[in-house]
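Q: Got a minute? One more chain.
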Amino acid sequence: MIGTGYMEESQLQEQLYKGEINHLFYVQHHSEEKQKAFEKYCEDNNLPQDNRAAQDFMDYELKMEEKAHRDDAM
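A: Always. Here it is, folded:
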């Protein structure tokens, strides 16, 4: 069941994987911090707050996380 407010990350990941929710729903229901980061990402990149931008934002976050891990390993 899809709820309102913030949800557990594992639940969101599972629903996204199953195609039950889209990337925008994921970002909007993950946490206040992620939602604000997404809003800033859209503002900084002059993007609408839509599903495509949410997917791009999640890809960007993943790349930054991978870069941080690589930098830590050096």
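A: The two ends are 43 Å apart (CA to CA).
Q: Perfect, thanks.
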